[in-house]
Amino acid sequence: MASDDDYMAFLNKANKDPSEGDKKAQSASKQEFKATDDGAQIPAIIQEATKDAFYVSDADEPFVPVYLAWDESGKGLPDEEEFASLIHHPDPSSAEIEIQDPADWDAQGQYKSILDAVRKAGKGNDVRVYRVSKGGVKVEYWVVTTEGNGPGAKLVGAKALAIES
To answer: What's the CA gap between 136 and 87, in Å, rounded?
Structure first.
């Protein structure tokens, strides 16, 4: 029979986070990505759309507004690495980010109000969904477009955390 100390050590080891040794997964999962610039004037249509909207997954999480300066807007929406830098990912060059088509992301029309608000805020500009892995089963979905063009343009939209087990 094991001593109490041996049994406690066994329990502590069994309850450790399996991604504990994975520094990349750890830093991303604990990281809170930047969603809004200081003093951001979030468009009313985005504020209204995100007010009572939740992304349905294993943990229903609220949508939150996104409003970030995007100086390169003349070339459209950012690629994966540019997006990672924009949201202050700890390692943009190796961030696990996937670009998705909004129609594929919301194939069942659950998030039509979010998509419509983002489209209206962008006044016809392209809308894109970025799936940002936070390590393990946590991902964030960023639904964004550009507001304005050239210097002073903004990336606007909404994001939500999803738990996908």
So the answer is: 19
Place of tokens 């949201």: 87
pLDDT in tens, 59-91: 899 999 999 998 775 678 999 999 999 999 999
The pLDDT tens digits for 97-127 are 999 999 999 999 999 999 999 999 999 899 9
Element (H, E) at 68: strand 64-69
Cβ–Cβ contacts within 10 Å for residue 121, how many? Answer: 26
Which fold, 4-163? Nuia (3.40.1460)
Q: What is the pTM of this model?
A: 0.80
Query: Burial level of 108, CB count in 10 A (0-12/13-18/19+)?
Result: exposed
Domain range summary for the chain, segments of one domain joined by +: 4-163
